């Protein structure tokens, strides 16, 4: 709790008021448990553990060359970040470690989707298509027929859709420069939670994508440069028939249809960029524009987008709750005197 004279002020706005004060106050925040990468790294560690254990149980082979290269690169990045932090280069440290964290989480999540695909549960495409039929005034085929000839529009939609591959790194750089570590680590935590939730839901509701379900040929969308509609189905079939039994860090496409992680990621990015004004508002608009692109470009059902938005909201709420809890636990028994003369424990 924070005392100002005789008034007691609880932790409000997740310590943002105190973080806006002079440097000594920011040091106090760190001392009582300011957000850190630890919660997100724990999720990554759990996913990596599950990949190793489940892979061995299912008798998958591990591409040691690819895994060693990836682990060495990520480990080197984290080491560089810790060295940079030790010598006072906090911006570089935050940027490098956050990027390594997001990459590690994505790699582990993709590997887990391969392993849980062996469950062989019935595909959920008929149910997803039925929900779409209730929600939409048009059919999937009508959408494809309308977009197919519009090559320029599809090209722009592909670029917007693929921006999810690089946007997180722009966000991490911008937040690191702004010294907004509160948002950096909350975003990373929510991103990892969203990935873990998406994998868990995909395990019980796998889908072969809308293009495959509706029997739409790639020639119907000649300008579509994102092979998210047919390649994932090929990989899923290969996993189920036993011809693909390898865990690797390269070359495996995203397999999750419901919920759409593109939708979840877009919402998380929009939230993150909203903290950087006015520059970030451009990216907020970009991520809002991504949502209508997801079905046609990513071969998602429209209900997948709704599911992804719910996952993003749930992950943000969970990351906020975890952060507030950890701060309060760390500060238990401590008082911060925030008088005009300064702040001290």
Topology:
Layout: E1 2-4, E2 7-9, H1 16-19, H2 23-31, H3 38-57, E3 61-62, H4 64-86, H5 90-116, H6 125-135, H7 140-147, H8 151-162, H9 167-178, H10 181-204, H11 210-213, H12 231-240, E4 246-247, H13 261-273, H14 279-298, H15 302-330, E5 336-339, E6 342-344
Parallel strand pairs: 1-5, 3-4
Antiparallel strand pairs: 1-2, 5-6
Helix pairs in contact: 3-5, 3-10, 4-5, 5-9, 5-10, 8-14, 10-13, 10-15, 13-14, 13-15
Give a description of the structure.
The protein has 345 residues and is mainly alpha-helical. The protein is built from 15 helices and six strands. It has helices at 16-19, 23-31, 38-57, 64-86, 90-116, 125-135, 140-147, 151-162, 167-178, 181-204, 210-213, 231-240, 261-273, 279-298, 302-330, and strands at 2-4, 7-9, 61-62, 246-247, 336-339, 342-344. A four-stranded mixed beta sheet has the order 2-1-5-6, covered by helices on one side. A two-stranded parallel sheet has the order 3-4. Helix 3 (38-57) packs parallel to helix 10 and helix 8 packs across helix 14. The longest helix is centred in the C-terminal third of the chain and has 29 residues, at 302-330. The radius of gyration is 22 Å and the shape is globular.
């Amino acid at each position: 709790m924070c005392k100002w004279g005789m008034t007691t002020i609880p932790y409000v706005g997740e310590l943002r008021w105190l973080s806006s004060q002079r440097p000594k106050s920011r040091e106090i925040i760190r001392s009582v448990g300011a957000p850190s990468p630890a919660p997100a790294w724990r999720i990554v560690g759990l996913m990596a553990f599950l990949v190793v254990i489940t892979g061995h149980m299912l008798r998958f082979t591990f591409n040691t060359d690819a895994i060693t290269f990836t682990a060495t690169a990520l480990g080197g990045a984290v080491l560089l970040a810790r060295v940079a932090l030790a010598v006072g280069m906090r911006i570089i440290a935050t940027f490098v470690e956050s990027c390594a964290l997001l990459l590690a989480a994505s790699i582990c999540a993709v590997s887990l989707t391969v392993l849980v695909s062996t469950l062989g549960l019935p595909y959920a495409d008929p149910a997803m298509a039925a929900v779409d039929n209730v929600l939409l005034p048009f059919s999937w085929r009508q959408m494809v027929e309308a977009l197919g000839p519009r090559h320029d529009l599809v090209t722009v939609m592909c670029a917007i859709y693929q921006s999810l591959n690089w946007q997180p790194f722009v966000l991490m750089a911008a937040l690191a420069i702004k010294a907004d570590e509160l948002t950096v680590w909350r975003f990373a935590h929510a991103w990892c939670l969203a990935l873990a939730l998406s994998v868990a839901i995909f395990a019980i509701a796998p889908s072969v994508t809308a293009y495959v379900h509706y029997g739409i040929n790639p020639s119907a969308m000649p300008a579509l440069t994102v092979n998210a509609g047919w390649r994932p189905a090929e990989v899923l079939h290969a996993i189920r028939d036993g011809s693909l039994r390898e865990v690797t860090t390269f070359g495996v496409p995203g397999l999750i249809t419901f919920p759409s992680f593109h939708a979840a990621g877009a919402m998380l990015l929009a939230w993150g960029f909203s903290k950087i004004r006015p520059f970030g508002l451009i990216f907020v608009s970009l991520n809002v524009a991504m949502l209508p692109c997801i079905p046609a470009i990513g071969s998602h059902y429209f209900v997948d987008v709704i599911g992804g938005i719910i996952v993003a909201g749930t992950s943000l709420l969970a990351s906020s709750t975890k952060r507030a809890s950890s701060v309060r636990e760390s500060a238990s028994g401590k008082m911060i005197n925030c008088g005009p003369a300064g702040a001290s424990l």
